[in-house]
Design a protein that fits this description.
- This protein has 572 residues and is of the alpha+beta class.
- The chain is built from 18 helices and 24 strands.
- The strands form five sheets. Strands 1, 2, 3, 4, 5, 6, 7, 8 and 9 form a nine-stranded mixed β-sheet that branches. A five-stranded mixed β-sheet has the order 10-11-14-12-13.
- About 9% of the residues have low confidence.
- It binds adenosine-5'-diphosphate and magnesium ion.
Length: 572
C-alpha cells in the first residue's frame, strides 16, 4: 500500500531547483539578474574553480531589509509581484520568487545586505536548506551573496558538472550577455583570482561589444537602430565570415532579458539570409524593448521563451530592420580566416569563423592553381586598372590595399544580377526580352495550372508565360538583363518555390524567384569569361551598395593580407 504524503519543504525546493539551477552559470545568472532588479550600477562576480567551489556576487543595489532576509530565501516569496494582475505586465527580470530558495536548497548560501536606509548590514546563512538566524554583519552598501559547494551533497547532480574552465566560461557568457543589454551598469568577473571580463557603467554599446566580441569583430559589426513608440529595436550584426553553424553567437534580448525563442530566431535568420550562407547563423546582438503588456514572459521556467501579442508586427520589424541595414552594409573585404584570430575569451565572444575554411582552402590551393593561371592585362577602367588573374575560370585574384583579394566569379555575378534586377523591379521597369521562339516545357496539368495562376507575379519579374495546350507551358519572354537564363531551368525552380511553401505570398514568390533567376543567369564556376566581361562584372559589383555575399549568403570575396602571405612563407 502506498500512502500519499505532503513532501517536506526542502525536497520541494530541491525539485524546483532542478528547473532553475543546472550548473554554476545558472546561479550566476539568477544572482546577477537579482542585482539588476535591485537597481545596481555595479555588479562584481567572483568565481572559484569554475564556480563549483564558490560563487560570489556583489552589488550596490537597494539591498534587503534584515527582517526580510528569511523571506527572500523562502520559495514563492518575491518583492516583484503582488497579485495576479501584475503577471500581465512584468517589468523585472525575476518574478517567480524561486531562485534564492532553490539555490539555497542545493548549496551553502550566505546573504549579507545593507539596504540604503538601514544602520548596518545583516546576514543570514543557509546550509542545504537549513536556515540559520539573522545576524549583524560587516559589509558594504548593497548586497553580497556567496554560494559555496554547489550540489556537493547531491552527487547525482554534481556528476553532470564539467571541468571548472568549462563551467567558468558558461558563467562568464551569462555576464557578457547581460552586460550587452544593461547599459549604465558596470560588470566584472574574476575567476580564480584573474580578471576575465570587465565593463564600466559608463561604457556604451560599442565598448561592450568590443569587450564581448573582441575589438576587430565588433568594429566590423553593422549597427541597426530602429526607435519607435511601441517597439524599439537595436542590433549589431557581424560580417558574413563570422557566421557559424550553430546559434551560439546569436544573442536576442527582450526588455533586458536574454531570450532563446525559436520563432524569434527564425525572424532573425530570415532578415539576414542574403548575408549568411544556408545552414549558418550570424554573429548577432538584437535587443527589443516594448511595453510589458504586449508580451508574456511567463511561459517557460527559465523565462527564455516569450509570447508576443502582435507577433507579425514584431517579426516584420525584425526582418525588415535587418534587411534594410544589411543591404547598405559597407563591410570592408577581409579575410574569412581573420575572424578566428580575434581571440575572444569565452563562448559568447568566440566567433571563430567556420567560414574561415573557405579562405584556408583557397589558400592551400594557391600553389596548385598556377598551371591554370592566365594573366590579364590592365585596361583603362576606373575600377580595375591593375592586373588580375583568372584561375580555373572560377576565381579572380587581384592585388588590393593591404593584400590580395580573391573573388568567386559566380558569386559576384549572382549578387550583381540580384541587386540590378531588384532595382528594376522596384522601379517597375524590368526590360523584357521576347524570345524569338518561345521555350516550351512539358508539365503535368496540375503543375501547369499552378504556374499559370501566378502569371501576374511572374510578369512583374519580367517573365512572361502562357498556356500552350493542355500540358505545355510556353515561356515567351525573360528579363533582358539576364541573358544567360535558361527558361527550362527557371520553370523547374518556379515549381520548386511553389511547392516548398504552403500558400506563398506574391512577395515571397517574387523574392525566391529573384534568388533563383540571379543564380541561374550567373556565369558558373569553370565558365570561360573574356577579359572585357570580367572587368565589366567587377565594375558592376563595385557600383552596388554591397557585394560581400552572393544571394545565398556565401562570400563573394576573400582577402589574404600581406601578413597571411608572410606567415605562409615563414617570414613571420
Ligand atoms: P525573484 O527574483 O523571482 O523575486 P528570488 O528568489 O531571485 O526571486 O529573490 C527573492 C527576493 O529577494 C527578490 O524578490 C528580492 O526582493 C530579494 N533579492 C534577491 N536578491 C537581491 C539583491 N541582490 N538585492 C536586493 N534584493 C534582492
Ligand atoms: Mg530572481
Amino acid at each position: 500500500m502506498s500512502v500519499i504524503r505532503q513532501l517536506p519543504r526542502i525536497v520541494v525546493d530541491q525539485i524546483a531547483a532542478g528547473e532553475v539551477v543546472e550548473r554554476p552559470a545558472s546561479v550566476v545568472k539568477e544572482l546577477v539578474e537579482n542585482s539588476l532588479d535591485a537597481g545596481a550600477t555595479n555588479i562584481d562576480v567572483i568565481l572559484e574553480e569554475g564556480g563549483i567551489r564558490r560563487i560570489e556576487v556583489r552589488d550596490d543595489g537597494c539591498g534587503i531589509a534584515s527582517d526580510e532576509l528569511h523571506l527572500a530565501l523562502s520559495s514563492h516569496a518575491t518583492s516583484k509581484l503582488s497579485d495576479a494582475a501584475d503577471l500581465q505586465a512584468i517589468a523585472s527580470l525575476g518574478f517567480r520568487g524561486e531562485a534564492l530558495a532553490s539555490i539555497a536548497s542545493v548549496s551553502r548560501l550566505e546573504i549579507t545586505s545593507w539596504p540604503r536606509d538601514a544602520e548596518r548590514a545583516a546576514s543570514i546563512g543557509v546550509d542545504f536548506g537549513t536556515q540559520s538566524a539573522v545576524q549583524d554583519a560587516a559589509g558594504a552598501r548593497g548586497t553580497r551573496i556567496v554560494v559555496c559547494d554547489l550540489f556537493s551533497e547531491l552527487p547525482a547532480r554534481r556528476k553532470f558538472l564539467k571541468r571548472p574552465s568549462t563551467e567558468a566560461s558558461h558563467s562568464i557568457a551569462w555576464v557578457e550577455r547581460l552586460a550587452l543589454v544593461h547599459l549604465g551598469v558596470g560588470f566584472s568577473v574574476q575567476h580564480d583570482g584573474k580578471s576575465v571580463f570587465h565593463v564600466n557603467s559608463s561604457d556604451d554599446l560599442e565598448a561592450r561589444c568590443a569587450a564581448v566580441y573582441g575589438k576587430q569583430l565588433s568594429a566590423n559589426m553593422i549597427a541597426v537602430e530602429m526607435p519607435s513608440e511601441h517597439i524599439q529595436l537595436s542590433a549589431r550584426v557581424g560580417p558574413p565570415e563570422s557566421a557559424r553553424r550553430n546559434a551560439r553567437n546569436v544573442h536576442m534580448f527582450l526588455n533586458g532579458r536574454w531570450v532563446r525563442d525559436p520563432r524569434l530566431l527564425r525572424a532573425v535568420r530570415e532578415g539576414v539570409k542574403e548575408f549568411v550562407p544556408h545552414g549558418y547563423y550570424p554573429t548577432l546582438f538584437l535587443a527589443l524593448s516594448m511595453s510589458p503588456e504586449s508580451i508574456d514572459v511567463n511561459v517557460h521556467p527559465q523565462k527564455t521563451e516569450v509570447r508576443f501579442r502582435d507577433e507579425r508586427m514584431v517579426f516584420g520589424r525584425i526582418v525588415n530592420g535587418l534587411r534594410q541595414a544589411l543591404s547598405q552594409a559597407n563591410w570592408s573585404t577581409r579575410a574569412a580566416g581573420d575572424v578566428g584570430s580575434y581571440s575572444p575569451h569565452t563562448s559568447v565572444g568566440s566567433a571563430v569563423s567556420e567560414l574561415g575554411g573557405v579562405a584556408s582552402a583557397t589558400y592551400a590551393q594557391l600553389g596548385l592553381a598556377n598551371s591554370d593561371a592566365r594573366p590579364i592585362a590592365a585596361i583603362d577602367d576606373t575600377v580595375a586598372t591593375q592586373n588580375f588573374l583568372s584561375v580555373r575560370n572560377t576565381f579572380l585574384f587581384r592585388e588590393v590595399e593591404g593584400g590580395v583579394e580573391i573573388i568567386d566569379q559566380h558569386a559576384l555575378h549572382e549578387r550583381v544580377n540580384l541587386e540590378e534586377l531588384r532595382k528594376e523591379i522596384r522601379a517597375g521597369e524590368v526590360v523584357m526580352q521576347p524570345l524569338l521562339v518561345p521555350s516550351l516545357v512539358e508539365l503535368s496539368r496540375k503543375e501547369l495550372q499552378s504556374l499559370v495562376d501566378k502569371k501576374d507575379v511572374f510578369r512583374k519579374l519580367g517573365v512572361e508565360i502562357a498556356e500552350f495546350g493542355d500540358t505545355t507551358l510556353a515561356i515567351n519572354a525573360v528579363p533582358a538583363r539576364l541573358k544567360r537564363l535558361k527558361p527550362e531551368a527557371l520553370v523547374e525552380d518556379l515549381l520548386e518555390i511553389l511547392h516548398q511553401t504552403r500558400k506563398p505570398s506574391p512577395e515571397q514568390i517574387q523574392e525566391e524567384m529573384l534568388y533563383s533567376m540571379s543564380c541561374r543567369a550567373a556565369v558558373m564556376a569553370g565558365d570561360y569569361v573574356n577579359e572585357e566581361s570580367l572587368r565589366s562584372l567587377l565594375k558592376r559589383g563595385a557600383d552596388l551598395p554591397q557585394d560581400r555575399t552572393c544571394a545565398h549568403g556565401r562570400p563573394v570575396r576573400v582577402f589574404l593580407s600581406y601578413l597571411d602571405l608572410e606567415k605562409a612563407f615563414y617570414r613571420r
